[in-house]
Each structure stands twice: as structure tokens, then as C-alpha cells.
Amino acid sequence: MAERKQAPTEIIIRGAKAHNLKSIDVDIPLGKLVAVAGVSGSGKSSLALGIVYAEGSRRYLEALSTYTRRRITQAARADVDEIRHVPAALALHQRPGIPGVRSTFGTSSELLNSLRLLFSRLGSHVCPNGHRCPPSMDVALMVPTHCHVCGTEFCGPSAEQMAFNSEGACPTCAGTGVVRTVDETSLVPDESLSIDQGAVAPWQALMWSLMKDIARDMGVRTDVPFCELTAKERDIVFHGPAEKRHILYVNEKTNTAGEMDFTYYSAVHTVENALAKVKDEKGMKRVEKFLRESVCSDCGGSRLNEKVRSTILAGKNLAEATAMTLDELIAWVWHVPETLPDSLRPMAGSIIAAFMDNAKRLKDLGLGYLSLDRASATLSTGERQRVQLARAVRNETTGVLYVLDEPSIGLHPSNIDGLLSVLDNLLEDGNSVLLVDHDVRLLRHADHLIELGPLAGRDGGTLLAQGALDSVTREPASKIAPFLMGEGEMAVRERLHPRELFHFGRLSMETAPLHTVHALKVDVPKSRLTVVTGVSGSGKTTLVLESLIPALAAHCAGEKLPVHVRSIKAEGITRVNLIDASPIGINIRSTVATYSGVLDDLRKLYADTESAKALRLNAGAFSYNTGSLRCATCDGTGRISLDVQFLPDVTVDCPDCEGSRYCDEARKVLWRPEHGEKTLSLPDVMSMTVREAMAVFATNKRIFGKLATLDGLGLGYLTLGEDTPALSGGEAQRLKLSSEMGRPQSDSVFVFDEPTIGLHPLDVRVLLSVFDRLVRAGATVIVIEHDLDVIANADYVIDMGPGGGQDGGRIVAFGTPSEIKSCRESITGSYL
């Protein structure tokens, strides 16, 4: 028998050129944990996702038939000279899509499958005549159950029949747990107007204005302020009967009279009718402003119908079981077998083993505080990613390459151990793991490290180091080495004495209980950097995003406080700004130059040149969205989409403008820098990085000032023409700040939600300098964060906890980082 060739031990990559990668050569060991490090924008995701994952998934799909492939969204070939031995790949992206209304933590984690099976096979079901029958093997054996009271035979529900996404759904809310009803307070927003003036909003937006004429015919005065109508008139407007009326009317557009038989639609009926006819998102947006969403009164929000809720197991029904947190549910499930007859215990053990295997991984990843009935759409990005990760491990595949994009997002330091355990499980099953991350503990755990850099954008994309941890730490060019060896200094901001904290005053808030958060009294020092910390589910989001921000916004606008906020004191505060990581803009027409306002100044600059005046071009002509100089082929987007029949559409740089967005005529309009010899066109400038453009516009105070602000925010490597929707979360957050820098901020509160997402430890230093500039300008800066460097550099820390869910919701500790560090009850303090 011929000797077999040895199996490949590494993925071989030669000439990787995706995005800013500079034709690098990399070898990635198989069957190992391989980490990719580097500053933001250095090319990490380009290598891991743009090359390795793109080729692994594409090659797997190419093995399928053409007929099958045309029904699947396919990726184009990765921009690489050669890549060999890449396994089938699965990617766990940094930002999983937001699930629909029918998804819960139980369904997305698949825990609910085991739980429904447990209730179906082992529960005590109710016969059609209302008699409770003891647990039996009948459902498992697929035979009818015989009621021992009335003798009726019936079939117990299968696990599928207990699902709220099928037969088990509550008929009132259709398995969503919520019902939409008309909010009557929204129907007449301004009662000082008369009906003739448009007081009844739904008649203006959703129904013929003819309703005014019919209401008048029914005895309602339409020419007086709505607030003066009698109770009877108001009842006709809101709830009047759907009577058919013969009316004379005048067409407002043509001023011609006519007569017609028309059915009266009251304001409430108008909204209900429009809701029933909604077919798309656009239609829903027209109606939803008149609706109130509330918990379904029939199922209590459980989504399950009465029949499903009638089955009892170990003293609980399925609705009650899914309302428990995972920690509580695990404890309850363990005791289920002891409530059952001996004959059913082996089957219970088998189902429970499958449930526990899944539940343990989710608990290890720090999700024990979530209840199974929690809507998936309300989970944070980090929580959704960890559900995705646990599901990948549970599949027990082998030979698969898992590509993870920053799995530590949203994880408290105490949850990193659970993540490391999950990664080890993937490797033990014979898989390979390639992860992009900045968390030093994760990087230290890697078998092999690849570092890209040295900087971002055009200054990145080169290979700085690769190999085992000890070889990378000896590499002089490595940026991450000092942090891997624990030599990177943590505290870089000046320490304040506790007596100085409230020198500029304080924001004070008092709340009632909300979700799992107890009633709170909280003080935040003004013009300081405050960091809110705590494990996942401890109440940080509820405290800051659901309480403090809405309360401050209401205070600034002089409006009513949120129901659960008892009081807010914020003397001198007139603005509150939430700086989150949501993408900027929705399409590629938004660029760094347009968002920062630099392009407006550039258009005026070029319109003032001699060549522009000779061609009679004004500033508007230089707009790549609407101006005459935009490229006609791509309509100023810089991209075109090619239809290649059975293969996926391919988006490429426009062949005529080469991605610049401008036509050839724009290149003829030239401007010469004051101290430069070379003339430049606007497309030339748009292709420059912020830092390159700063050198060119050093004498133009207005343009240079905006560019310097971007550079000071650590964004000097971005090109002016870069699409803003493609920026990372951290880049988007800092770009949003660009218009706020350099102005007095003593009346402002800035709230940042996990701003270190995607940031290298060196980038965190830049972020801290940004916070420092805001604080020095008088701003009150509040940050929700897990990053220990940011926490250590705070002026004031509010630590929530001590645990998540029911075990959290309290302020465990508050004070300077040193005071938090010495608090025994603070989990965060133990890691500082």
C-alpha cells in the first residue's frame, strides 16, 4: 500500500493584498489558537475576514452545484496571490445582526428546544375536560393519553406544538408577547387647533381629509379649537360609529363641488384600519406614531397559548420556567427528575444532559443572568456574539476553521476565563481558531500570534511579527510586546484627590426600580471623567442609557421626567450627547470629508481658482452627489455593480473615475498650495490621508483646524474620501466627536457606550487623551466600560453589581479607582 502524504499543518498565504495589506506572506498553523493583533486600521480584519474566511467559505460553496450556489449570496475571490490548505470556515462577526421580534434568548441559544421537549415528554397535561393527568410515557411513545377521571383519550402536545412560533402561539398577540393598541393621546397632538386646521393627526396622515366634512355632518364643530369640544363631540371624533353618510363636499385642489356616499372612520378606526393594511416598513412608520405597545394581557407576555401553559412540570408551567434566569433555571432543571416516577427518570436524564451541556457554556460566558423569554433584540452586541459562540461550540464539528472578530467585546474581565474555556473546547474537538482581538489575556493564551502594523491605513498592512508568544515579545518592531509582558503603564492621567472630585458640582439622580435594577441614588461629579463598570447584566445600561440620559434630556428640554426617575439635579447642564458605535451614514455617499465639513471648505476653495472661474464653475459643481463634475458612470459613488448572471453581483471601483467619484473635467481644475510646487485637483486631495492633507493646508486656518481635530482624535490615517459607514465602531465614535472638540463644554454631558471596542492598548491611550481634552474644556464625561486601562484612568468610578440579573442592580462601590480597588465586594476592583 502506497504511503499517504502527510496532512497539511498550516494555511499558506502568499501576497495578501486585501484593503491596506501590502502583499504580505503569512503561515497560519492549523489546529491551534492563532491571534491577530495590531492597532486599529492595521489590517487585522482584512487578513482574518477578507482573506482567510472569505476564501474558506467561498471554496466550500464552490463545491456545491451551480443551481444551489445561485440561491446563496457568494463572495468574490479574495485579493491574494496564493492561499493553500484553508479549511471550510465559519465566521463569528463582531456585530451579529439584530434578530426579529420572534427571537428570544431561549430560541437563539436553542435552550428552549430542550425545555419544550422536557415539558412535552415529562409534563402533566390537561385533558379536554379540564382534568390533570399524571406524567407518563404516552407522548414519547406517540400514543393517546387516557384520562383517569373522565376516560377521555387525547394526544399530549409535542415539543413543536408547544412553540410560540407555531401552534403554541397565543392567538391574541400571535406569539410576539406584545399587542399594539391605539394611543389616543397621540391622535390630537395640539388641542389649540380646530379640526378644520388639522387637529386630528390620523385624518391628515392616513385618511381622506373628507372625514372633517363627515364629522361636521354628524354634529361636531370643526371650526373651534379642539379643546372646546363637548364630551359628546370628542367621542364622535375618537369612537364614532362607522356610518355611511351622503355628503356635499368641495375639492380643495380643484375648488369644485360634488356629492358622495362615504363611510365615517373615527380617529381610532382610521389607525386600526391603516395598521391592518400595513405591508412594509415604510407603511409601519406612518402608523406606529399613533400606537402604544404593551404586554399582551392574555398570555402575560409569555407568547404561549392557554393550552401550552396548562402543562405542569415540577410545579411550573413553560411560561414560568422561561421567565427564570438561566442560573435559576439550571438549579430547577437539576431537581426535575426527583419529582417524576422512576420509569421516566432515564428519559429525563437524557434530555437534561443535553440542556445542561448547552447551558453550562452560556453560563461560563457570563450569560447566567438572562431569562429565556428575554427578547433577542434587547440583548447587547456582546451578548448576541456570545450566544453565537456557544452555539458554534455545541455543534461539535471537527476540522472547521472558526474566525472570531473581537469575541471579548462586552465582556467584563471576570468573563474572559469562560471565553478561554470555550475556545479551548473548539480546539479539543479538532478545529482551528483564528481570532482578532486586543484583550491582552486572550492574546497571551494564543499558541501563535500574528501582528500587523506598524500604524493604520496606508501606514499599516505590513507584517511586524509572527510566531509563538516568546518570539513576538522579543521582536523590536512589535507594538503589542510591552503589553504582553505587562510593561505597558496603565495609569496615564493625573490622579485627583477624593476631596477635589466634586469641586465643580454634581449631577444627582434618584430612581425607582426598573428591570433588575433596584431603586438608586447616584451622584456624578461635573467636569470629570466617570466610568460606570460592572459585570454583564449588572445594570449599567439601565442606569446610564435608560435612566440618566433620558432624565438629563428631559431636564434640558424642560419636559416631564421618565416615569421611573424620581428626581434629577443638573444645574448648568443644557446638552447631553450619546456617542455610541453605530455606523455613520447609511450609504457610501457619506465620507470623512463630508461628515467633518472639510469638503464644504474644499469646494469653496476650488470654486475660487482661476481655472474654475474660467469654466464658470461654482462651489456646487464640486459636489460629488449633485454637482456637474461628478462621474456620470457611477453617479458620484465611486463604485459600480456588475451583474454576472449565476454568480453574485460584483462591486468594483468605477473604471472611469477609478473610485475618485469625479469626472475627468474635475482634474483640470487645479489649485497650488502656498508653499508648494505641485498643483492638485480636488480628486487628488480626496485621496489623501488626513495627515497628508494637513501638510498641504498648513496655511489655511479653517481647513487645517478641522484636519488637526481629526488627527488629534487618532484618525489621521483615514483618507478624506473614505466611506463613513465602513468605519469601525471606535472610529465612528471619534469622528462623531469632531464637531465638539475645541469649544467650551461646561454645559455638556458626553456619554460613551463601550468606546474601546476595536481599540489596541495604544489606541486606548489616544482615547484617554480625547476624554482629557473634553474634561479640560469643562465637559462631564460618563463612560460605560470594561477596559481596565480606562477604569484605572477615571476620576470617579461607579461599580454596579455585584453579579448580573437578579444578583445585580445595585451600586456596589463608588469613588476613585484606588477606592474601588480596596472594596472587597467589587469584582471589578479585584481586577484593577
Q: Give the low-confidence spans.
A: 644-648
Instruction: Kindly report the average pLDDT value.
Output: 86
Roughly how many Å apart are the termini?
Answer: 61 Å
Q: Strand portion, in percent?
A: 15-25%
Please tally the β strands and state the result.
26
Give the strand line-up of the largest sheet.
5-12-13-3-14-15
Helix content estimate: 25-40%
Strand-pairing-aware structural class: alpha/beta
**DSSP helix count?**
31
Oligomer: single chain
Q: Assign an overall shape.
A: globular
Sheet bearing the most strands, described?
6 strands, mixed
Q: Gyration radius, to the nearest Å? A: 31 Å
Key structural traits:
six-stranded mixed beta sheet; 31 helices; single chain; alpha/beta; 832 residues; 26 strands
What would you say about this model in short?
With about 850 residues, the protein is an alpha/beta fold. It has 31 helices and 26 strands. The chain has a six-stranded mixed sheet with strand order 5-12-13-3-14-15, with helices on both faces.
